[in-house]
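User: Please fill in residues for this 200-position structure.
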């Protein structure tokens, strides 16, 4: 007797079977990733790059920025205004202990943080949509400079009073209907591109 259902099941199994050559893409183990301990990370030389969070309200976003900053060896994070600080269980959920590896400092206002960075010789760049911004692909960091990047509030963005103190503004090109990205997404895009150029 012909079993049509069994025949179809056999065809599906064959259809979704991967060729043997796919094994070369085996996922890396934790040992193979050579993950640093928190202590080793803190001792490792970092990029001369500071991230500034201007009144970021979401602990998930804050934690995500910590995790991204850890991945790209960011020197430090300045947490400003209403931005929450570790220890915080909601930050930890997204940061996964990166809040323990990446150095952070709290400032009551972002203007105060920017003024300190400028005094310490940093070039300070807001990430925002403004007139006369530099599009991210066109941004070339000065190889001899210390860089600070400011990411703003989820609704209001980087405050104008902060922008007015910056050396310039970087904008992420966007082509859809929203022209708005979540801050953790913006940080991931900008930090990848800027650190890539700083390391080249």
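Assistant: Residues filled in for all 200 positions:
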């Amino acid at each position: 007797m012909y079993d049509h259902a069994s025949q179809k099941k056999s065809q599906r199994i064959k259809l979704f079977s991967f060729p043997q050559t796919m094994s070369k893409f085996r996922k890396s183990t934790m040992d193979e990733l050579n993950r640093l301990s928190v202590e080793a990370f803190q001792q490792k030389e970092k990029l001369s790059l500071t991230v500034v969070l201007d009144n970021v309200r979401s602990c998930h976003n804050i934690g995500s920025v910590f995790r991204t900053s850890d991945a790209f060896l960011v020197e430090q994070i300045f947490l400003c205004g209403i931005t929450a600080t570790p220890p915080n269980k909601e930050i930890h959920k997204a940061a996964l202990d990166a809040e323990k590896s990446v150095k952070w400092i709290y400032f009551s206002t972002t203007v105060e943080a920017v003024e300190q960075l400028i005094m310490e010789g940093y070039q300070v760049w807001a990430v925002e949509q403004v007139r006369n911004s530099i599009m991210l692909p066109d941004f070339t960091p000065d190889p001899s400079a210390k860089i600070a990047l400011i990411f703003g509030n989820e609704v209001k963005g980087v405050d104008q009073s902060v922008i007015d103190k910056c050396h310039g503004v970087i904008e992420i090109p966007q082509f859809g209907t929203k022209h708005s990205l979540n801050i953790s997404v913006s940080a991931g895009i900008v930090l990848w591109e800027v650190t890539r150029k700083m390391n080249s």
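For context: The two ends are 67 Å apart (CA to CA).
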